[in-house]
Amino acid sequence: MPWKYQRGGTWWIGYRLNGRQVLRSTGSADEAVADKEIARLNSMREAHKAGSLSEEFFRLLTQKQFGGDSLRAYVDQWLKECKDLSPVTLKRYRGEIDGFCEYLGATEDRPLLRDVDTRTIATYLRKRKAETSTATAKVIRKILSAFFGYAVDNQALPTNPVPSSKSLKLTVRDGRNGTKRRAFTLKELRLLFEKAPSDFWRYMLLAGFYCGQRMGDLICLPWGAVDFEQDRIHMTTSKTGRALHIPLRPELRQFLLAVKKNAGAVKPGNPIWPEQAKRYQERGAADFSNEFYEDVLLPAGLVPPRTHKAKKQGRAGARAVNSVSFHSLRHTFVSLLKLSGGSQAVAKELAGHSSDAVSDLYTHVPEEALAKAIKQLPEVTK
Fold it and tell me: For the whole model, what pTM was predicted?
């Protein structure tokens, strides 16, 4: 039901459109004008059938025609407002949304935003799934959903046309050719640490296992995030924006102190690994993923050698994905936390996962519980 309220002497009308609150000024100080507008809105709602909003109803309710902007123009507007994204993430968003526009042959004038329907998006996502993988298509779907969700939030569209992951059969988490990711065994972890070719990769293995965080966050971690006095790592994840306070394992603490000593004078804002952090910010994770495969996994005998042809196929190629990768350290972290007696809430808190169900049940996990869980993890350096 619509409602009225007064602001600065002018009467305003409020109502909900597709579950979202809309506030609109009447431009008048006369309360009768507000009452008349409310009566008009109520009449329209009573006449409108239950279900999704029709274009005519939307136009009458918002006093504009939805989807009148071109897709290309609205994409450019959206990208300009993605200011909080990291350069790497913004580059990925731009690349995928440009690929979608290219698929549609989008120009500055056509197609209009409202002309892009669910069937068109579904066809495109199935095409990308066939070219790449289920996981990649799932990421593209999330990017498109974020874009069209932005259009809905700004009342440029009544509903988000992006189909669900379930309808597109993107709900199964697997790699290309159906290869499922798995956690490392403790024996494999120790072998990886032994075969690691550099201090950087030894750090990545220790931090990946004892912190459970994503590759990019660990590569770009600044010295200021490491609290040696409190034995904590304080960080904000780039993907979800969650603030984490992870207990520092003695092995990782000792390793970082040695790195800091060799680095000489450092500032809190300096990355622990400045050269690698710069490379990641400029080029993303692909180089590091390949290095982890060739320089860490391969010497440990956990993956087969890649052929010259497979290396050249690139992102859209049909190269099979191995069952282990750097992200497997995150799987290992969560799995061993639970095997060591940590609860689901502790594992979620430390890994930085988001879950509505857990959030409803737990508002805070005591630091003592987090420290105890990290302490129970096995030694991997010996």
Answer: 0.52
